[in-house]
Design a protein that fits this description.
This protein is of the alpha/beta class. It contains 16 helices and eight strands. The protein has two domains: 165 residues, Rossmann fold; 204 residues, Up-down Bundle (Dehydroquinate synthase-like, alpha domain). A six-stranded parallel beta sheet has the order 1-8-5-4-2-3, covered by helices on one side. It has a two-stranded antiparallel ribbon with strand order 6-7. Strand 6 and strand 7 form a beta hairpin. The site of zinc ion has 5 residues, from helix 8.
Length: 385
């Protein structure tokens, strides 16, 4: 196992009816900015619950944070923050809203000239407004990690700081009942790939991390399809298990002390940036192909994945690996997400553009060993056609 530091101070409030805890979590004398997205919280009752919980607080609203939040939108929040002396942010929404709140929080306290430097120059965040989160879409883990992805001019760039990790997060599975099938699928698949990025590398004998990861993968494989099936769609236990899996997938626990890959994400970001493919769908397209292309480098872990996650015990190593990849694709299909580029209308003519974008963004040494060159990314994209 590798050395690691691990601290996750986000206070999780899990379960139905927990939105009311924000009354106590946010100091009464705080000046709160509630940030949210395109309005789903107004139609599913979440906004009302938040309003009720903040009845005695002084609070303001900032809405319109879009999926894949943009710098331009997020910077607009700075005016109200200054005008109203905001000193606390409450993010109410999915990963985009929580990620957006993180950039707003860091930009509000940034002492340099241009807050964009936090992202483009990876300037350290020295101060940020405190953030609380009410999560409405289980997927990213953003509600209890320090990561954020911001888009500017079609380019998605991540930044990270412990100072933007939410102080608390409310996870009420019942608020996920209003999600569309597309967003349910996206969430399950994003969480699944987060686990894979931290698990499917090379072994460092991190038994705890591996077993946690395998348990989470199996939970998503079992519960994900139930959230789409008419008979079990509204089952709150299904939603609860998906929600907690997605948080655990990227709250730092399973990734501590093990190598991490993230190549699927970095290649996927270009599909989103160039062609507007939903984040999770970019991953379900890239991952199967990446598994094929990197099967030698990932052999040991692919075999472990085959045996422990998919119970494949027959055949030689190559047969087992093929079978594990096939079952992964089948699971993605069951979750109704695309599994190749042609599913979203991207053709061989687009590969040059995608590789050029990877090059422009410095993504020429990806993967757990930094050995996925641009040529290998091209191979992964070509195999994904
Ligand atoms: O904007 P509203 O109206 O709220 O609608 C949203 C949005 O259209 C809707 N939605 C959310 N909760 C809902 C709901 N609709 C009905 N009922 C509810 N309960 O869902 C749509 C998508 O929301 P979004 O927040 O964009 O989805 P997601 O949570 O998948 O977040 C994706 C973003 O997170 C980033 C991605 O790159 C992308 O920008 N990521 C963040 C990570 C992190 N912070 O650690 C890691 C991830 O790998 C990822 O990169
Ligand atoms: Zn992701």
């Amino acid at each position: 196992m590798l050395n690691f530091n691990f601290q996750n101070p986000t206070h999780i409030h899990f379960g139905e009816g927990q939105i009311s805890v924000i009354t106590k979590e946010i100091p009464l004398n705080a000046r709160v900015l509630v940030v949210y997205g395109g309005g789903s919280i107004k139609t599913n009752g979440v906004f009302q619950q938040v309003s009720d919980a903040l009845a005695k607080h002084t609070w303001f609203e900032f809405s319109g944070i879009e999926p894949n939040p943009t710098y331009n939108t997020l910077m607009k929040a700075q005016d109200i923050i200054k005008a109203e002396n905001i000193d606390y942010l409450l993010a109410v929404g999915g990963g985009s809203v929580v990620d957006g709140a993180k950039f707003i929080a860091a930009a509000a306290e940034y002492e340099g000239e241009d807050p964009w430097d936090i992202i483009v120059k990876q300037q350290p965040v020295n101060k940020a407004l405190p953030i609380g989160a009410v999560l409405t879409l289980p997927a990213t883990g953003s509600e209890s990690n320090g990561n954020s992805v911001v888009t500017r001019d079609g380019t998605k760039i991540p930044f990270s700081s412990p100072l933007v990790r939410p102080l608390f997060a409310v996870l009420d599975p019942s608020v996920t009942l209003s999600l569309s099938d597309r967003q349910i699928s996206n969430g399950v698949v994003d969480a699944f790939v987060h686990i894979i990025e931290q698990y499917l590398t090379y072994s460092v004998n991190g038994k705890v991390q591996d077993r946690f990861s395998e348990g989470l993968l199996q939970t998503l494989i079992e519960e994900g399809p139930k959230a789409l099936a008419p008979a079990t769609k509204d089952d709150l236990e299904v939603r609860a298990n998906i929600m907690w899996s997605a948080t655990m997938a990227l709250n730092g626990l399973i990734g501590a002390g093990v190598p991490q890959d993230w190549a699927t994400h970095m290649i996927g970001h270009e599909l989103t940036g160039a062609f507007g493919v939903d984040h999770a769908r970019s991953l379900s397209i890239v991952l199967p192909s990446l598994m094929q292309v990197r099967r030698e480098q990932k052999r040991e872990k692919l075999l472990q994945y085959a045996e422990r996650v998919w119970h494949i015990n027959e055949g030689d190593d190559n047969v087992r690996i093929d079978q594990a990849i096939k079952l992964t694709v089948e699971f993605f299909k069951q979750m109704q997400v695309p599994t190749c580029l042609s599913d979203v209308g991207i053709t061989d003519k687009d590969i040059d553009l995608l590789v050029a974008r990877l090059e422009k963004h410095g993504m020429n040494a990806l993967g757990e060993k930094g050995d996925i060159t641009l040529d290998i990314s091209r191979e992964i994209l070509t195999k994904a056609l």
